[in-house]
């Protein structure tokens, strides 16, 4: 799965670069050939000529080129997310937002640096859990009291 994902991301990135490269070269002036006589640019034109004048100096890149690149990145990110999570999982995540927390931690007490006990509320029960670095053990279980923690 990792190799397929990497190849897909690489293909999307290459396609974006291949599409952006010719468009960027269209906005830049052509370079003069080597050895050609370089002519000085003429001075500014007289103000009385009926020409439409651009504001400021030459633009480095047109603004739509940045939008094109950002759209390509957004499409690439969407493809990445859909391939990573699957289309069905992605649509389910958008359709059904979570209503609340399924497990609520009531209290915790460290015993040693590697061990602790926790009281959690889950499906109407309070569970006392012993946790170490390698396992979790259910120590006690009883119904949750109806007045505690139900306000959230």
Write the layout of secondary structure elements.
Layout: H1 2-27, H2 63-85, H3 87-95, E1 103-110, E2 116-122, E3 125-131, E4 136-143
Antiparallel strand pairs: 1-2, 2-3, 3-4
Helix pairs in contact: 1-2, 2-3
Number of contiguous helices: 3
Radius of gyration: 32 Å
Main sheet summary: 4 strands, antiparallel
Instruction: Report the span from N to C terminus.
Output: 40 Å
State the helicity in percent bands.
25-40%
Going by helix content, strand content and strand pairing, the class is alpha+beta
Strand tally, please? 4
* SSE pattern: HHHEEEE
Mean pLDDT equals: 74
What coarse outline follows from CA principal-axis ratios?
elongated
Please report which band the strand proportion falls in: under 5%, 5-15%, 15-25%, 25-35%, 35-45% or over 45%.
Answer: 15-25%
Q: How are the strands ordered across the major sheet?
A: 1-2-3-4
Pick out the low-confidence regions: none
Can you put this structure into words, describing what you see?
It contains three helices and four strands. With 152 residues, the protein is of the alpha+beta class. Strands 1-2-3-4 form a four-stranded antiparallel β-sheet, with no helix packed on it. The two termini are 40 Å apart. The mean pLDDT is 74. One of its GO terms (biological process) is bacterial-type flagellum organization.
Labels describing this entry:
cell membrane; alpha+beta; transmembrane; 4-stranded antiparallel beta sheet; 152 residues; Flagellar_biosynth_FliO; 3 helices
